[in-house]
Amino acid sequence: MNYHFKCILCGSEYDPETTRYVCPKHGDEGILDTIFDSREINQITSPRAITGSADFSVWRYTPLLPLENPRESAPPLQVGWTPLYCSTTLGTRLGLSHLYFKDDGRNPTASFKDRASAVVVARARELGVKIITTASTGNAGAALAGLAAAAKMPAVIFVPQTAPPAKIAQLLVFGARVLLVKGTYDQAFDLCLEASKEFGWYCRNTAFNPYTVEGKKTASIELCEQLGWKAPDALVVSVGDGNVISGLWKGLRDLLTLGWIDRMPRLLGIQAEGSAACYNAWKAGTETITPVSAHTVADSISADLPRDGVRAVRAVRETGGAYLTVTDDEILAAIPELARGEAIFCEPAASAVYAGLKKAVHQGLVQSDETIVCMLTGNGLKDIASAMKVAGAGTIIEPTLGAVKQLNIC
Ligand SMILES: *Cc1c(COP(=O)(O)O)cnc(C)c1O
């Protein structure tokens, strides 16, 4: 695919052969968008051709991905084509007749982050790099560790020492070199950048690496295809660094430019009350992101300074959406609601989306007959401690039928 990069701040354009990460004029804030020739893509493929594809993974969208030879560079692990469920219970409860849940916890390392890591690892192989690295709150690292294992590429992962044990277990088991940073995710991010510069490692850091957003865009392309190449009215997603919402927006912008969908959905960004830098900027009507001191049970969306904040605020503003915040209690309460109502077990950063949707309904931000998609980004097994706070307790009994009878279950 022919493509080039464009700085989201100044619009300067760059050749991917010579520019690897960000706009040299703006440093880490000069995130790059990927621009392609829509006519060229429409000449080689179409929604109908893709619908006929037998590849049920992110690679069904290779004509829309900025890679040279994905047939050879794609790591052999099935990422993407996650189920889009029509709500069976919670939609009725909220008075929404077309509510959907996309379960991205079904990815190989159990989070949405596999989409970005798949494309970044493919790009790393094309570049011929030897070592790949990232900073992560846990999921991006687990995804990179998994995809790097699939590609037989050594990975170095920087995570806060406080990351949930299940995520650290994933990093270790896939054989990555795991660096447990005594500090926050933001400190791990900066350290990873420094190390990658010093040692020449290829850096996957969220947003800093332009291919992360390109991987993440596959989710919105996929859900439009699953809806019969139609855009929903609203798409609800949780926001930490803002790269997931930026990726979903990019996929939708690509589809609109290609003429494959006919309208842009409203994007609703959900943040934890204790980690709400994008919400704050959106509310204040600015693109200047002021860092916060993030504290939330939803570790995957805990970010002092959202690295893709500018684009994340634009995604909501330019689509006529909204930002909402939810408390940790609301986030936790949403875990069993989703599990009991829809049989989807989410980690807190994903259940936050349902907590946010409830608020959006109460505030009249979504209408009953609209098609609404909730993006559920991570599996509940990632963070058992949080689930156990709200799941209730089992009943301990003697190993006798009499003991069961005494409980009067039916
Ligand atoms: C990373 C992540 C998010 C948020 O993505 P950002 O790009 O940081 O906004 C949401 N949910 C889960 C489970 C994640 O891992």
Write the layout of secondary structure elements.
Layout: E1 3-7, E2 13-14, E3 32-36, H1 38-44, H2 47-51, H3 70-73, E4 84-86, H4 90-94, E5 98-103, H5 113-127, E6 132-135, H6 139-150, E7 155-160, H7 165-173, E8 177-181, H8 185-199, E9 202-203, H9 210-216, H10 218-226, E10 234-238, H11 243-258, E11 266-272, H12 277-284, H13 309-318, E12 322-326, H14 328-342, H15 348-362, E13 371-376, H16 384-390, H17 401-406
Parallel strand pairs: 5-13, 6-7, 6-9, 7-8, 10-11, 10-13, 11-12
Antiparallel strand pairs: 1-2, 1-3, 4-5
The structure holds pyridoxal-5'-phosphate.
Describe this structure in words.
The chain has about 400 residues and is α/β, with parallel strands linked by helices. The protein has a domain at about 85-110 and about 210-380: Rossmann fold (3-Layer(aba) Sandwich), CATH 3.40.50.1100. Helices cover about 40% and strands about 15% of the residues. It has helices spanning about 40-45, 45-50, 70-75, 90-95, 115-125, 140-150, 165-175, 185-200, 210-215, 220-225, 245-260, 275-285, 310-320, 330-340, 350-360, 385-390, 400-405; strands at about 5, 15, 30-35, 85, 100-105, 130-135, 155-160, 175-180, 200-205, 235-240, 265-270, 320-325, 370-375. Strands 4-5-13-10-11-12 form a six-stranded mixed sheet, with helices on both faces. Strands 8-7-6-9 form a four-stranded parallel sheet, with helices on both faces. The protein has a three-stranded antiparallel sheet with strand order 2-1-3. α11 crosses α13 (about 310-320). The structure holds pyridoxal-5'-phosphate.
